[in-house]
């Protein structure tokens, strides 16, 4: 993305929110695809899209609303991070996604320190899986399913946590998973994650092959 493109989008964003009293900003938009792939298999356009949405857009929107919040001496910014970068040591085959979410957590924590004395609260929420269309069916149906809140349940818990620290995982089921994750050695996490993601990758490839055969017969 050229510098000019960034400047132009910032100008348009600032113009769009001029005069608005933005009290709470939730940077929720996120992209997780391509999911479970090796880095050398991903085409550059796909991972640039992930970086643009998860990292760059979140930064630009935050920078655009902050001046108004600072001027009014109040406001809250919630940035959607992920437990994949905060609660577990690696997220193999989803490396760019996890790396963008690590950026979100670090960015939020630093802003929290910078702006809390000026009345602006910045928080990163780092959930495990939530039952949205982002999560593949193979995960929604596996042993983790009792730990997957619905989007509504997540949103209710998320709203209650605003203003309570720079990093949180709002639902009780995710807090339990976080505790469990914290006692497992890193090597065990690494092994489990790689195994699970290779399994999901094989599952996805089988499904793609089946669909191709189906269309060929059709
Ligand atoms: N679901 C999970 O298990 C989970 C876990 C950890 C973190 N998160 C994070 O939570 C956030 C919400 O994810 P979700 O589960 O609700 O995923 P989702 O169902 O796939 O929704 C993604 C959202 O991002 C928006 N979006 C994507 N690309 C965009 C773009 N270029 N411009 C504008 N909007 C765009 C989508 O808008 P459209 O509807 O218009 O496409 C949609 O509202 C994400 O940041 C995600 O990384 C999710």
* Mean pLDDT level: 92
User: Any low-confidence stretches, pLDDT <50, length ≥5?
Assistant: none
- What is the total domain count? 1
Strand order of the largest sheet: 1-2-3-4
CATH homologous superfamily grouping: NAD(P)-binding Rossmann-like Domain
Specify the helix fraction band.
55-70%
Sheet-strand content, in percent, reads 5-15%
What is the molecular shape? globular
- The structural class is alpha/beta
Largest sheet: 4 strands, parallel
Rounded to an integer in angstroms, the radius of gyration calculated over CA atoms is 19 Å
The CATH C-level name is Alpha Beta
Ligands bound here? NADP nicotinamide-adenine-dinucleotide phosphate
Number of helices: 8
In CATH, the architecture is: 3-Layer(aba) Sandwich
How many strand units? 4
Q: What letter string, H or E per element, gives the SSE order?
A: HEHEHHEHHEHH
Q: First CA to last CA: what distance? A: 42 Å
CATH topology: Rossmann fold
Task: Give a verbal description of the structure.
Belongs to the short-chain dehydrogenases/reductases (SDR) family. The chain is an alpha/beta fold and 218 residues long. The chain has one domain (3-217): NAD(P)-binding Rossmann-like Domain (Rossmann fold, 3-Layer(aba) Sandwich). The chain is built from eight helices and four strands. The protein has helices at 3-17, 44-72, 83-86, 95-115, 137-140, 151-161, 172-183, 186-217; strands at residues 24-27, 75-80, 120-125, 167-168. It has a four-stranded parallel β-sheet with strand order 1-2-3-4, covered by helices on one side. The protein is globular. The model has no long low-confidence stretch (mean pLDDT 92). Bound molecules: NADP nicotinamide-adenine-dinucleotide phosphate (NAP).
